[in-house]
Amino acid sequence: MKRLILVLMLLASPLMAVQPDEVLDDPVLEQRAREISAGLRCLVCRNESIDESNAELARDLRLLVRERLVAGDTDEEAVAFIVDRYGEYVLLRPKTTGANLLLWLAGPIMLLIAAIMGWSFLRGRARSAETAETDALSEEEQERLRRILED
C-alpha cells in the first residue's frame, strides 16, 4: 500500500499548477501561454516557474499572461509587459546584457584572479626557499651558534 502511494505521489509531481478555470478555449493561445509561463519565475517560490507554482501570485501572473495574449500581444510583448511591471528578476533565464553581463562574468573573472594570485604566491614561496638554501650559515657561524646554545 505504501509503495502504491509513493508511486502515485511521484506520478503527480510533474503536473502543472494551472487551474481548469485558467485554461483558454483556443488551444494555440493556451500553448503560447504555457510556453511563456514556463519561462517566468514565481516571485514567491523563487526557482519555480509560474506554470508549476501553486502560489496565488503565480496564478495572478498566469492570468495576466493569458489576458495579454487574448488582447493580441505577441509572446515578446506579453513577457515585456510582465518584466516592466515586476522587473527582470521574473525571468527564469535573465538576459546577458547591460548590468547582468557584469554578473554573468564576475564568477569567471574572480576565478581567474584567484588562479593568478595563487600562482604568484606559489612562485614566491619557491623563490624564498631557493634563497634560504643559499643563505645557509658558514662553518664559523655554526660553531658560534653551537657555543651559544650550549651555554
From TrEMBL:
<protein>
    <recommendedName>
        <fullName>Cytochrome c-type biogenesis protein</fullName>
    </recommendedName>
</protein>
<keyword id="KW-0349">Heme</keyword>
<comment type="function">
    <text>Possible subunit of a heme lyase.</text>
</comment>
<dbReference type="InterPro" id="IPR051263">
    <property type="entry name" value="C-type_cytochrome_biogenesis"/>
</dbReference>
<dbReference type="Pfam" id="PF03918">
    <property type="entry name" value="CcmH"/>
</dbReference>
<dbReference type="GO" id="GO:0005886">
    <property type="term" value="C:plasma membrane"/>
</dbReference>
<dbReference type="InterPro" id="IPR038297">
    <property type="entry name" value="CcmH/CycL/NrfF/Ccl2_sf"/>
</dbReference>
<keyword id="KW-0732">Signal</keyword>
<comment type="similarity">
    <text>Belongs to the CcmH/CycL/Ccl2/NrfF family.</text>
</comment>
<feature type="domain" description="CcmH/CycL/Ccl2/NrfF N-terminal">
    <location>
        <begin position="6"/>
        <end position="149"/>
    </location>
</feature>
<keyword id="KW-0472">Membrane</keyword>
<keyword id="KW-0408">Iron</keyword>
<feature type="transmembrane region" description="Helical">
    <location>
        <begin position="101"/>
        <end position="122"/>
    </location>
</feature>
<keyword id="KW-1133">Transmembrane helix</keyword>
<keyword id="KW-0479">Metal-binding</keyword>
<keyword id="KW-0812">Transmembrane</keyword>
<feature type="signal peptide">
    <location>
        <begin position="1"/>
        <end position="17"/>
    </location>
</feature>
<dbReference type="GO" id="GO:0046872">
    <property type="term" value="F:metal ion binding"/>
</dbReference>
<dbReference type="InterPro" id="IPR005616">
    <property type="entry name" value="CcmH/CycL/Ccl2/NrfF_N"/>
</dbReference>
